Amino acid sequence: MSNLHISAAFDSGNIDVVDASNPDGVHLRIRKDAGDQHLQWFHFQVAGARGRPLTLHIDNAGQCSYPKGWEGYSTCASVDRRNWRRVHTTYEDGVLTIRHVPEADLVWFAYFAPFSLEQHHDLLATCQASPLASIERLGNTVDGRPLDKVVFGEGARQIWVIARQHPGESMASWWMEGFLGRMLDPDDALARVLRDAATFHVVPHMNPDGGFRGHLRCNATGANLNREWHEPTEARSPEVFHVRNAMDESGVDLCLDVHGDEALPYNFIAGSEAIPGWTARLAGLLDCFKTEYAKATPDFQTTYGYPVAPAGEANMTMCTNQVAQRFDCLAMTLEMPFKDNADLPDPIYGWSPERCAHLGRATLHPMAAVLVQLR
Ligand code: ZN
Fold first, then answer.
1. CATH of 117-371 given 3.30.450.20, 3.40.630.10, 3.30.200.20, 3.30.10.20
2. Is 335 one of the annotated active-site residues of the chain?
3. What DSSP designation does 94 have?
4. What is the mean pLDDT of the chain?
5. Residues of the chain with CATH 3.40.630.10
């Protein structure tokens, strides 16, 4: 029998091997993000285990950023890196245990179906092949990677859509593929109406450094980008610094920031109800967007979500609150599950890349519904 080999030395990889000498009890640890605050994303390859029952223990799962994320969670695994099935996973006494018999020599395991930096570049290339879109360079990241914005549409309203502030939330990129694909479809009537009424500024990947490094939440300096919107600096959080400056230049009438949530098995939206500038107008817009999203797809719901902070106590370091206050506009955080949508569960794939893309495409409906009321 060949030896077991475990590696995470690739784009968006994350794992440390403690002991891989025995396939019945492999011991692994998730590496911390830069900044030593956060950890939960994992993505690694196991070689040499075809047909052998594998038991993998992630020993430090209980010390991760969101231990509740492991309750009712199943790990994603793939042999072709396209189809990511859920495999048997348990969480007990702070240890996550994965049991699986790989059907091929190489098998990849991940917290959620990964969306690599290479795939992000493919997405940009696909967008620029459309005569409807152009790509603008906003600036560079800490590691010197490009930060790009996809621009399309010719209308007066300014709509911003951003994703992957938290790089481990790869579902946001799968959502983005669906959203951009539909928005740049010349034969889609709803996309055309939206492009006529608004100019879209889309940043598909806010944190390419963190994504490549296999981080959960932070950039290369250890900054959690969605806690940097009050006072971003070019040294610590250039990703937010450049995007916020570009927003100041264009103005913002609607902002959607796309994320994933470790614990809740639902798709939901968090608004900016606790900002000092909250008004009945913004409340009406938020309510309309959420109601129309739920009408557009049963994968979106309004029953479960985050509790709303007390009035006036919004965390202004977060994108949604900062942008809503700064531009007196509708700004929202979309959360998708790492686990599954408990309303419509799929025991084989859980919440999957395909379902993220469908949710992205469905987003055109609530956008169209609020468009005429934005100002
Ligand atoms: Zn997030």
1. 3.40.630.10
2. yes
3. T
4. 97
5. 117-371
